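Attaching the record inline, Q. Sequence:
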Amino acid sequence: MLVAGDGDILRPLVLRPTAEVQSRAIALVGMPGSGKSTAGKLLARRLRCRFADSDAVIATRLGESVRTFFEREGEDRFRDVETEVVGELTKESALVIATGGGTVLRAENREALCRACVVFYLRSSPEELYRRLRNDTQRPLLQVADPLRRLQELLRERDPLYRQIAHHVVDIGRPTVQTLVSMILSQLQLAGAVEAADAGSTPTSTDPQTDRR
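Structure, as predicted:
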């Protein structure tokens, strides 16, 4: 969160996770292009937690890109591996997880995320998602003749599932990543999941990952 300082200059508010967040993961769910990985990395730094991108974990496990595996083996096989990874990640604590866009399609993933994590749904319109993704060639489900229409179809299918498991819904529009993370932190503060910490504390860094689903 940003707070006003001298001269109305905004400065970061240093936050400390409460026992709830320290003992549970925070999961970001939403459509491809909603900013889960970008926001997740910054959120993890602000909370001094570890960050994990589920698709990056999958790609490391497979030894190849998600797109290559997806195109060769098909969606069902990809979802099998995804479920294994989600099951493992949701057993960890003090972790921010950026999930794949289709993670919620399987009931076991929804159950694990809702039970073990504080879940944030980063919601955006198909038009805004298309603006962000129109030149992206790495997302298998969007390699179609009409990506905007495909995004509209995917959102109609997935929006109820995201909402089903979300503890918080954040309508993102076109904010900067700093604003988006501040919105998430505000929700956590209102829920009593984080509190102000010593301003001299230094957040830990995290490795960059890329949201591909």
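Strands lie at 2-4, 10-12, 15-17, 25-29, 50-53, 95-98, 117-123, 168-171, 194-196. The radius of gyration is 17 Å.

More tomorrow.
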